């Protein structure tokens, strides 16, 4: 990906202090999504290292991972699988717990999300912070029988070093702050 594109993305991210709670700097990606040309460039850049990886499914993490992941899936000619917060999916699910700063949370996917033995999944989300959510999605993907091809993020929060939690597949991050 070009340095120019990275700089444009960085300039369009909107950092909002103390949202959703005190002490958090929330990185709002909506200005990137609003721009037709930039949105298309971001989707292509997220997919780029995986063009030859024979990805059969993109698994997007609720909620902003749905927006980016759906677009990346069509770019790669892959299907889309939602990883959702507990209790949101209508059919039989498999779940994976993970730790938050305070307490625990879980993510779920449908049991039959990867119905072929040779499913190859790419995980997509907007932001990697501590890495706990992405790690849990990787465990969930593998427990459902898919080969994990990699993780792709628009933004990494560098000081939290979240990608150190992600093992066994490449991590692709467009920009870091
Ligand atoms: P983590 O498990 O700590 O890596 O958190 C990642 C998830 O939380 C992603 O789904 C992000 O959308 C969201 N998230 C965490 N921190 C931020 C932040 N500072 N700004 C926007 N989204 C965030």
Topology:
Blueprint: H1 3-12, E1 14-17, E2 25-28, H2 30-34, H3 36-47, E3 57-61, H4 64-76, E4 79-85, E5 93-99, E6 104-110, E7 120-128, H5 132-143, E8 147-156, E9 171-176
Parallel strand pairs: 3-4, 3-7, 7-8, 8-9
Antiparallel strand pairs: 1-2, 4-6, 5-6
Helix pairs in contact: 3-4
The structure holds adenosine monophosphate (AMP).
Task: Walk me through this protein's architecture.
The chain is an alpha/beta fold and 177 residues long. Helices cover 29% and strands 33% of the residues. Helix 5 (132-143) links the parallel strand 7 and strand 8. Helix 3 packs across helix 4 (64-76). The longest helix has 13 residues, at 64-76. The protein is globular. The model has no long low-confidence stretch (mean pLDDT 96). The protein binds adenosine monophosphate. Adenosine monophosphate (AMP) is lined by residues 24-27, 61, 64, 125-134, 162.
Structure keywords:
single chain, two-stranded antiparallel ribbon, alpha/beta, globular, about 180 residues, binds adenosine monophosphate, seven-stranded mixed β-sheet
Helix share of residues?
Answer: 25-40%
How many strands, which pairing sense, and closed or not: the largest β-sheet? 7 strands, mixed
- What's the helix-strand series? HEEHHEHEEEEHEE
What count of helical segments does DSSP give? Answer: 5
User: What is the terminal-to-terminal distance?
Assistant: 17 Å
Which regions have little confidence, pLDDT < 50, spanning 5+ residues? Answer: none
- Biggest sheet strand order reads 5-6-4-3-7-8-9
Number of strands: 9
The distinct bound ligands, ions and cofactors come out as: adenosine monophosphate
Shape: globular
Task: Bin the strand percentage.
Answer: 25-35%
Q: SS-based structural class?
A: alpha/beta
Overall average residue pLDDT? 96
Write down the Rg: 16 Å
